[in-house]
Design a protein that fits this description.
The protein is an alpha/beta fold and 186 residues long. The protein is 38% helix and 20% strand. Residues 7-145 form the NADPH-dependent FMN reductase-like domain.
Length: 186
């Protein structure tokens, strides 16, 4: 008998219900439809002290993030693109993965990681996705074959879990499905 698998979603911006958070929710919902449990840590919950390897203690939010990542069988990370790069909020959260370096399963070792970037323009969306892939590789994670670059100048996400562009929704749903399927196959 296998225990339930969990996919953790991390991302968004400080604005509640941001475009990137809505994109993340679409991917997580698709993962849940495949039979995994999901957990979400949205942007407002990623307001953490700057990551410091020398700090001996972590605040409550950082501890929750670290423990959630530690338990996760797969992850989905969605970042807004600011000035051609991922947000400092998401980058700082990913820096906390360093706290897993001594674990039996260090960093994101062997875990599938779905990635998407939402930015006002194609250049920032594409470069942000590339940076997320590079970070995932450095943390020993397995980026899904499909990543999402979404131009929020052309695509608007709504509160009901949809978007003005069906292709963006299909991409995000496929990312969620790929993470769940890989997670369930292990």
């Amino acid at each position: 008998m296998t225990s339930a698998k969990t996919v953790l979603g991390i991302g968004g911006s400080l604005r509640d219900g941001s475009q990137s958070e809505r994109a993340l929710r679409i991917a997580l919902d698709s993962a849940a439809e495949q039979g995994v449990n999901t957990e979400l840590i949205p942007g407002p919950e990623l307001v953490l002290p700057f990551y410091d390897t020398a700090a001996g203690e972590r605040d409550e939010r950082a501890t929750r993030l670290i423990e959630s990542i530690r338990r996760a069988d797969g992850l989905i990370v969605v970042s807004p693109g600011y000035h051609g790069a991922l947000s400092g909020l998401v980058k700082n959260a990913l820096d906390y993965v360093e706290d897993l370096r001594e674990d039996t399963r260090p960093y994101l070792d062997g875990r599938p990681v779905g990635l998407a970037a939402v930015a006002f323009g194609w250049q920032a969306a594409v470069t942000t996705l590339d940076q997320l892939r590079t970070i995932t590789h450095a943390l020993r994670g397995w980026p899904t074959p499909l990543g999402g670059s979404i131009n929020s100048a052309e695509t608007k996400f709504d509160e009901s879990g949809g978007a003005s562009d069906d292709k963006s929704v299909r991409t995000l749903r496929l990312i969620g499905r790929q993470v769940a399927e890989f997670t369930l196959s292990r």
